[in-house]
# Entry
Amino acid sequence: MSDNKSSPSCLTWKKLPQMKDPILLMGFHGWPNAGSVSSETLLYLIEVLKPKHIAGFDEESFLNYAIDRPIAEIEDGIIHEFDSCVSELLYWENTDGEHDLVLFLGKEPSFRWNAYTSIFIDVMSKLHVRRLFTIGGVQDSISHSSKALVTVVGSSIAALEDTTQLGYGVQPAEYYGPVSIHSRLVNACADSGIDAISFWGHVPAYLQKSPRIVARIVGILNRLVGMRCPLDILEQKSVELDRKIDEAMAKDPNLQQFVQSMETGKPQVNLRGKKIIRLDDFVKRDHSRDYRDYED
# Structure
């Protein structure tokens, strides 16, 4: 079913499916994607659930290419692939639970947040979505062996209660400082009478990916959405990453000291604006060389 006439020009609808009390799940590349928690969670769900296409969303008018440049593949002097600024709205029919799922993974808008938010409030109205979940990642002064932590920001106390009562290490967020598009969306949902929750997975600053946190968030979503998305692959990746980290620490006392300082909550580096250890790179390098990829 095409409905382009009543849609903003950045949206191209393919169909408007009949869905069962759908929940919109949004993730973003960029600043709110520490540890790739946001993008990895959405990509994992898309890979496992194999959702269908609803609409294309052209993000170009919301991006600053001087900051977030497109990616291209050039081979033998010829451009073969150019990163499209069009993201997809997808839907998944949940045969086992009470809620179908609408999924969106895009880039955090560089500007025009009010216009961007208004578009997705309209999308939720069109698709009869009464609940929004956003996924984000935040760097924290913790280590990979710390207890998994997910904090939440909600549009209301009632919306928060559904998640904090689950357990799973979910806690209400305490924060003061710069915010992301997640917060603007949650605020807009509160004004529109839509329940909204922003999930934030806390990851060690030295990891580029954290499958353990992704597994924790997917487990939370399983409970809230009423789905059965498997966690075994993510858990296996988490065990393998922990093994590599332990091996790396055993071969490098500087790295061991750094990680232990994170475990005690007293990091030896200032995480803001400093060059920090990237273990994903470290575990692939030659361990016979000294490793000093951080600043005192």
